[in-house]
Design a protein that fits this description.
mainly alpha
């Protein structure tokens, strides 16, 4: 690769717009862009790195709407910032250290894990997230016991490693973690989740770029398409509802898992 035919370009643009819409409606754009790059002939590790870099502008844009909520919880930023960066860089180094053949075999498993996270979203929300419209405050990190703080840092480190290595579904994991820590302001939780997601993806993308693991023609097409899809997806989600959007993500994820697994077994 890079792509050459009009059909390949059309498929890439469609996947980018779809990924942006999925991220706006329910998350999980990687579930679409990563396998599409593989289906177009890109090696799995390069496809993963390219997808991470391409979806970065959308992640940055999603943070803008939560600016005030994030800035009002600066102590939480300080508490989980370093574990996020450390995990992101560790995951990206681990990815590029993985033999291509092994990662290709892992691809169906990673897509399946991300899809299962989406399927478990409702259960995680009932367990860790506040009810809609509820919760005006959040505890300060200083009020956490030492054991709970250490547990939080280690869990965020693990989330960061997963995010740097693959990434689909880390938003769900981080919301669960913030709920476990006692945060009850859902807007603050979403803002913090987006901030840490951006931190993880930035350091991973920086390492991928430094190592020359990104295919730029595809990344640029995906980035533009994702921004367009994100804008349209936010509007479209209001028409169909988020539950239908999440159902679509799950169906796509299971279908892609089956296709990738079948390719490995041929």
């Amino acid at each position: 690769m890079p792509f050459a035919t009009p059909a390949q370009i059309a498929v890439l643009v469609a996947s980018a717009v779809g990924a942006g819409a999925m991220n706006a409606m329910a998350g999980g754009g990687t579930i679409l862009t990563f396998p599409v790059l593989i289906f177009l002939g890109m090696p799995a590790i390069r496809a993963n790195a390219t997808s991470t870099v391409a979806l970065l502008p959308g992640a940055a844009a999603s943070l803008a709407g939560f600016k005030e909520d994030v800035l009002s919880h600066k102590e939480w930023l300080k508490t989980l910032f370093l574990p996020s960066l450390a995990g992101g860089i560790a995951g990206s180094v681990l990815l590029l250290s993985t033999p291509e053949k092994i990662f290709s075999r892992l691809a169906p498993v990673l897509i399946l894990v991300a899809t299962v996270l989406f399927m478990a979203r409702s259960a995680l929300a009932r367990r860790f997230l506040p009810p809609a419209g509820g919760g005006a405050g959040s505890p300060e990190p200083a009020r956490l016991s030492r054991g709970r703080w250490v547990t939080a840092a280690l869990l965020q480190l693990a989330v960061g490693v997963y995010g740097g290595y693959f990434g689909a579904g880390i938003g769900i994991l981080m919301l669960a973690l913030l709920g476990f820590l006692g945060l009850t302001n859902i807007h603050a939780m979403n803002g913090l989740k987006n901030f840490f997601n951006l931190c993880i993806n930035c350091v991973a993308a920086g390492y991928f770029i430094y190592r020359g693991a990104v295919s730029w023609p595809e990344a640029l097409v995906l980035a533009v398409g994702a921004v367009v899809g994100g804008y349209g997806g936010a509007r479209f989600s209001k028409r169909i509802g988020q539950e239908k959007a999440r159902a679509a993500v799950i169906v796509i994820g299971l279908l892609v898992t089956a296709i990738l697994a079948w390719q490995q077994l041929r």
